[in-house]
Amino acid sequence: AKDIGKIEPDYVKSFQFESRLLPLTWVVVRIDGCHFHRFSEVHEFEKPNDEQALKLMNSCAVAVLEEFQDIAFAYGVSDEYSFVLKNKSELYKRQSSKIISAIVSFFTSTYVMRWGDFFPHKKLKYSPSFDGRAVCYPTSDILLDYLAWRQVDCHINNQYNTCFWMLVKSGKSKTQAQDYLKGTQTREKNELLSQQFGIEYNSLAVIFRMGSSVFRLKTQEGVTEENGEVLGKQVDAEVVVDYSNIIDRCFWQQHPHILS
Ligand code: ATP
Ligand code: ATP
Ligand code: MG
Ligand code: MG
Ligand code: MG
Ligand code: MG
């Protein structure tokens, strides 16, 4: 038998490759629910949008920002969330597998822990899972283009899904609804909603149309007391959720600390 005591640790470790994320780039870790089409059916999510399910996702994202100080911003829609790590972050020495697995497992366990807070009358029937990937963006401009792409996707999917489910709820089969919508443009979908169903797209809940953004309110660097004394007290910045248009660069101008 082989003498276990003689195995050189360095030799065994030499097979491990650590892939480090490119230094000084913005890292986006995007997680996505595995087979949530099925998960949402089994758990009878409201269609097209179950608000409680979205709020559970948001609550988990807030927990992630509270746990990982290096995450500056997160954007979520449907069963996905994108977490933005600051460009100067040295979390896990930027080893991608450690970063991704730590975020995705923390998010998933929080999702299970908090399920009952959002669905007090629904039993969680099986263990949900999420996958994760990391992508580096070299400049904040490209990062904002990435986030804009996710928000455009949110809009396109929400508009399609709203039409699709209105057609299905009005008696069409899923295949009929799909065929009906094939090749329709944004304007035609809005007209369908307003003429056939009396729905003005822009009056739908903002959380459905915009997706959710999670970030910290600006840190107070020093509070000046009445006697002029400056207290250097470091208050933990509150993590908030909002439903802003993040494609519009105004949002980023109004919250310059997020990317600084
Ligand atoms: P994959 O494992 O490849 O990600 P998936 O079934 O999760 O497959 P997605 O493209 O991620 O596919 O889509 C997620 C699906 O989950 C949506 O199509 C929708 O059916 C469902 N879903 C997620 N969140 C909600 C929600 N809040 N309300 C209603 N349905 C939802
Ligand atoms: P890191 O986040 O770097 O992994 P860690 O605290 O998890 O930090 P590990 O080297 O992974 O450190 O060690 C796990 C520790 O968890 C052990 O040192 C031990 O204290 C504790 N632990 C894990 N499993 C058990 C167990 N079954 N019984 C008692 N203690 C345990
Ligand atoms: Mg996926
Ligand atoms: Mg999914
Ligand atoms: Mg998805
Ligand atoms: Mg450990």
TrEMBL record:
Localization per Swiss-Prot or TrEMBL: Nucleus, Nucleoplasm
Stretches of the chain forming a coiled coil according to its record: none
Domain of life: Eukaryota
Domain tRNAHis guanylyltransferase catalytic: 10-138
Sequence ranges assigned to domain Thg1 C-terminal in this UniProt record: 143-229
Family: Belongs to the tRNA(His) guanylyltransferase family.
General function of this protein: Adds a GMP to the 5'-end of tRNA(His) after transcription and RNase P cleavage.
The name this protein goes by in its record: tRNA(His) guanylyltransferase
